[in-house]
Amino acid sequence: MPPSPSTNQPDTIWRDAVKHYSRGNAHYFKGNLDRAIAEYDKAISLDPKNGNAYYRRGNVYQDKGNFNRAIADYDTFTAAQLSYAVDCELPDFG
After folding, report:
1. Angstrom distance (rounded) from CA 87 to CA 94
2. Do 20 and 43 touch, CB atoms closer than 8 A?
3. Three-class secondary structure of residue 27 per DSSP
4. Entry pTM
5. Is 59 exposed, middle or buried (0-12, 13-18, 19+ CB in 10 A)?
6. Whose CA is closest to 3, among 31, 63, 43?
7. What is the C-alpha to C-alpha distance for residues 6 and 10, in angstroms, rounded to an integer?
8. pLDDT in tens, 50-72
9. Domains recognised in the chain with CATH numbers
10. Residues 6+ apart with CB under 8 A from 47
11. What does the angle CA 77 – CA 19 – CA 37 come to, to the nearest 5 degrees?
12. SS3 category, 89
């Protein structure tokens, strides 16, 4: 499932971000870790509020043994998820 567009994100930019995110996934699952990082970098540059790309890039860094970079990306992912949860309106179950 592709990541959701960030608020106020032009549709074409979001589509390009999803394209790079998807390419990153394809490269990751083929074992092309450096190419996966490059694609996730592009996705993040287009949509820096998208936590999913940080999470996936963190997985790549972890696989490469770069644990400090992985932790930084996981931290960013967690912050993005919390920010998204705070921004969502919950239904009134009253």
Report:
1. 20
2. yes
3. helix
4. 0.78
5. middle
6. 43
7. 9
8. 899 999 999 999 999 999 999 99
9. 11-86 (1.25.40.10)
10. 3, 5, 6, 9, 13, 14, 17, 53
11. 55
12. coil
pLDDT in tens, 33-45: 999 999 999 999 9
Phi, psi of 9 (to 5 degrees): -100, 120
Alpha carbon of 87 to those of 7, 19, 23, 82, 83: distances in Å?
Answer: 10, 25, 28, 9, 6
Evaluated on CA atoms 77, 3, 22, 20, the torsion sign reads: negative
**C-alpha 71: how far from chain center:** 14
One-letter amino acid at 62 equals Q
CA proximity to 29, closest of 59, 50, 3: 59
